[in-house]
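Students often ask why we bother encoding 3D structure as a string. The short answer is that it lets us treat folding as translation between two languages. Here is a chain of 108 residues written in the first language.
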Amino acid sequence: MKELYLMLKGSDQAFRTLEKLKAEGYNATVLNAESLHHAVDYYPEEHHFFTLRHLEKKEAAESMLCLFVLPDEKLEQAKKIIRGYTNNFHDIKGFMYSHTIEDYEGSL
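And here it is in the second language, the structure alphabet:
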């Protein structure tokens, strides 16, 4: 099993990337995220949560952190989709990284 972390700057194009991944059968946990700078300097009194309503209504957060747990053979396809929709992270700011899950229990 592999774990893929994807961070995308919130935008309509970022949502289209997630929609494409969903259409291809991928699932992930998606969290609202913001930089430490914004969280502390601009909105220290606010607490932010990302819900399915935000995704459905396309209310863009500052950034989105997506956590995928994938079978080994699906990792490269997911990364290819992300590279294509982000134009190798030139059109949408962000990054991704993956690593092997050594001990996994559960069902997908």
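Translate back mentally: The radius of gyration is 14 Å. Keep this in mind for the problem set.
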